[in-house]
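Sequence only, no structure available. Ideas?
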Amino acid sequence: MGASYYPSGGYLFPPFNPLSAQGCSNAEATERSLASTPGSNSSPSSPPIVLSIAGYDPSAGAGVLADLKTFAAVGVYGMACITALTVQSTQGVRRVVGVDTGIVIETLDCLAEDACFSSIKVGMLAYVTIAQAVADWLGQRQEIPVVLDPIIKSSSGKDLLESDGLDVLRDAWLPRADWITPNLAELAILTETAVPTTGPETEEAAHRLQQMAAQRGNAELKIVVTGGHADAPNDLLLMGNECLWYPGERIHTTSTHGTGCAFSSALAARIALGDEAMTAVKAAKEYVTGALRYSYPLGNGKGPLNHFWQSTFV
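Reply:
I predicted one. C-alpha cells follow.
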C-alpha cells in the first residue's frame, strides 16, 4: 500500500477521560479514582496514570524528569521508575550507572500494587539485566499499552545501553512493545542496515523492523520513525501495511535535547487519554514541534525543550 500524508496543524488537546485507563478495568479505575478524591460522591476526577521507566538526567532535558514534565503538560498523571543515574548536563553525558535490577523490579511492583497504569513509556534501560527483567515484568501485564523509545546512544555519543542489550531489545522487547519510536540512527542499529536517507529507505527499514517483530510473535507492533535528524523532519507511522507520513517543520534552535523522550512520552500520554493511533501520533508531533518553537537557551550545550509551552504561550 502506498504511503499517505497526515496534515499537521489545528490540533486541540481535549480534556482527559478518567475512564480511559487501560491498565485496570473501568470499574477498578473508577473505584480508585473516587477513593483518591476527598469528599467525592459523584464522578471521578483523577486523570489517567502513565508510568515512565527510564534514566535520570540531572539537567532535566531528557529521561524521567522530561517525561514527567511532558505527562503533566499533556494532561495525565506521571509516575516513574528510574533505571539508571547519569552524570550529564546540556553539554553531554559523562557517566552512566545502572540502578540495581532488584530495586528496579521492587519499585515497579510497589507502584503496580497501588496504581492502575493507562500506558507505560520505556526509555533508557542501560544494562542487559535491567532490560531483560523489565521486559519480563511487562510480559505479565499484557493489558497495558507500552511505548518503547529504544535509547541506545546519547546525542553526544555515549553508550546508554550495553552492547548485548541490543539482542534483548530485539528478542524480548519487540515481542512485548505495542509501539516503538526509533529515530533514523536507532532504526538502522536495530535492523542492522544503513541509516536511511530517503523516504523509501525509511519505509523499507521500518518494514524490516516490523517483520522482525512478527517473527517474534508480535505482528501488531506500531512503528513511528522520528525524522528530526533528517533535512526534512518528517515522521513515519507504519501500522499494518499502511505507511503514513507526518510532514514536519524545521525549527531553528539549539534547544533540542530530549526530543525523542518528549515525543514518546507525549504519545504514551495521548494513548492513555484514549486517542486512536493516527491522532495520538499527530498530537505528539505537534506537541514536540511547539516545545521546540518556544524553547529558550539554557546551559552551554544543547538546551532542553519548553515542555510547558502550551500553558506559557497559548
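The longest helix spans residues 199-215.
Hope that gets you unstuck.
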